[in-house]
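User: what does the whole thing look like in 3D?
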Amino acid sequence: MARARIIPVFVPHLGCPNGCVFCDQRRISGSPLPASAADVTAALDRARALGQTGAELAFYGGSFTAVDPALQRALLQAAQPYLADGTIRSVRLSTRPDAVDEGVLAMLKGYGVATVELGAQSMDDGVLAASGRGHTAKDTVRASELVRVAGLKLVLQMMTGLPGSDREKDVDTARRIIALGPDGARVYPTVIVRGTALEDMWRAGTYREHTVADAVAVCADILPLFEAAHIPVIRLGLNPTAELSGGQAVAGAYHPALGELVRSEILRRQAAALLDGVPAGAEVTLGVAPERVSAMTGQHRANIEALTAAFGLARLRVKGLDEAGDGVVLVDVRI
Ligand code: SF4
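Assistant: Here's the predicted 3D structure for the full assembly of 335 residues, as structure tokens:
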């Protein structure tokens, strides 16, 4: 029997009372209409017809717990037959930190919700205000505790490059999110989506674009912090969609392979630390796990060229080496 992991149902902008400057959930999720109970049934019927079992139903986009409570219950109720027959094993959803309380969480748990994702976005109140988030960092701390106390898994989402933020504030947000002990995190560098308030701010010159290079630099600071705390980063960067790639992402940190660029930058930094002190003119071989050779080499050999130039090397090679583990090792230096 086929097994599926996630069955997504998008609830774009549904129930959201807010107007975050970067948000056009209908475009970001690539889904033009809010979901209904019939959509949930249709998605799960498809999975059942394919013989899938043990999947997780995921309500993404919007702010699930800010939706009319009757609709929340209807969406969750639609999933119950499929939980009962094992087509799905649990439900996850995302929402705003200021839209959860003990009663809401108890209701979600009763319907088989196992994981709640909270859009923290920043832990800096100035950044949250400048981004029109309508909640504070304290709301995120409070909501995270409530999710934990309710016995639900917690995933925290953060963004880099929001209005009023900088690299230091983004790294501080990551540290404060890690301190909340989530079971996982998502990191979304800011993308300027067509038609949003952020696009107006950028065109008016009141917001400086968070470029792909900016995002790679700060995410290469942040990712190792999550890894050191054993918190999986389950997503880095917006999922590529035909709409975003086709021009709706007008500027900002949109790149279909952003995660790969960040991993490449982390390895470049590790390699630079190893090469410090290697005499100019040397021929060097670095070792990384075989599946990391391409990330170490960099897109269009960017890392090889940058390191060769920075350290004046005659030649730099990268070799697949199982023993390298997660890092980079110096295999050979010839003068
Ligand atoms: S809270 Fe979420 S859905 Fe609502 S405007 Fe902000 S990002 Fe969009």
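In plain terms: The longest helix spans residues 258-275. The CA atoms of residues 193 and 249 lie 5 Å apart.
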